[in-house]
Amino acid sequence: EIRNHVIGRDSGFSNFKKMFSSQRSSLISENSKCSRCAQAQENITSLKDDLETYEMELDGRQEVIKGLYKEFQLAQKSKKSCEDLVRDPEDKDKLSILQEKDRQILDLEELSISLKRETAQLQHEIQTQKLERDSLKEELSMFTEMIAAKDQVVIQLTDRVYELENLSDIVEDGTEVEDTGKIHNRSLTMSSVQWRFEDAKQIEELKDSCEAYGKQNQFLNREILHLNQLRNEDLKRFKVLTSKYMDLEANHCKVKSKYLLLLNDRNMKIPVKDNEGKDDDIVSHLLEDAMQSVEVGKHEIISSYSQEESYDQYGFVQVAIYNETDALVSAATNLQRRSDNLTSKLLDLEVSHGVKWENYMVQLKEFQRTPELKSLIRGGIPHQFRAEIWMKCVQVRVANIFEFQGQNYYADILRDNKKKSSPAAKQIELDLLRTLPHNKHYVSIDSDGIAKLRRVLLAYSWRDPVIGYCQGINRLAAILLLYLHEEMAFWALVAIIECIMPSDYYSQTLKASQADQRVLRDLLNDKVPRLGAHFEQHK
Fold it and tell me: What pTM does this model have?
């Protein structure tokens, strides 16, 4: 019926074109009749407008027909698969699952297409904003250089004006001396006086030039202020677009990850029956498309990791994960991880939390424990303030110990025990390269963090021979060294082991640590029994 309707519309449209062409030819033949030219022109204009309207309507109806035809094909395939499942009474549950999965897949496909369109549009806008920003930067640098050159010229002219004004004063003094008849050896000759009067004329011209340069300088200053304002507005727009783009890309990766997991789950639950020769056309078609997108996404993610830095801001290696035997799950995992990374970056860009921290750091005079600080820390410490906040927290915790031991305690303990051998030295050397093997600061024995970590661990083993060294302290010290300098990392280790954590938590037996694990297991079994059973199953 839709096709017949469209065919009827097409035939009407062709008749309309014929009528339009015939009327146009008749109007051209009667072009000599001037009295009817205006009316013919109006008719042609109205017919052109009607033609454009019909063409737009025809395009819209063709798009609707394409969409309906696609849904019709999908419905036919779904009907075929449903008929095959209905024949077997045991497959009725599978039929309901199949229909629900089909609806979910269609919804995810529509959402994915819309997100792709919005992402492409935002990328285009970001590129345009980048080009505008670069052009504004070039203009700003050009105006800055021009103003600097103008300033130099103004300074030179001002000095010249000052010199010429002094010369004019000398000329006046010399003329007064001639009038009174008191001429000395320093009196000026008539030629020199005439030369200085010519310079006085040049002074006036230079004053005019200085005034012109001053007005030009004011104009350029106004232009620079305007350009700075435009640049700030452009930066604000760029930040907003970047945040929106990151949010859309994170949502797109999340939806695509769920889509791949859904296809994988569907493939595992309803496998293809080879013995009967019946294929699920919809699932097989979607699986083929998904595998092709996985192959493309694999190269895109690997290239993105090669283009970006191979290490994150903390020094850990960034590597894409791919398992050839389970490509869908691997691709979904990578997409989910990328979505999480983008979400964390987006949280770092949030204005409210960052502004609160900036205001706190600006007003910080004396570090004290306050509810405001507690709330800020629970919301997360920004990367740029983390080292300073950690250092101040450590100083508050170990203030009494630091005052008792002295200011150079860490250097003294290293120097006094330099030629001694610690009982824990052998175990420390074994654990150095196993601490953070995927971090560039601890990846090899020659890395910059290995020597610092060795000294901190040996210093604490000499400070507390009872504990000495146990597994867990090395990772704690390595993470502290990512933010703090060596001596402050040692004092942070002292604060954690001796002031914050309970006794026997870090010891040879690790009794308190084992108690923590058992308490956590009991809490999981009580509060989240499904997760606790999962851990027990894979213990």
Answer: 0.45
